[in-house]
Amino acid sequence: MGRMKRPDGIGKVGNPICGDVMWVYIKVKEDKKTKKKKISDIKFETFGCVAAIATSSMITSLAKGKTLEEAMKISRKDVSKALGGLPPIKIHCSILASDALSEAIYDYYSKNNLTIPEELAKRHERIQRTLKTVEKRHKEYIELEKKVWEK
Question: Is 2 within a domain?
Answer without folding.
Answer: no
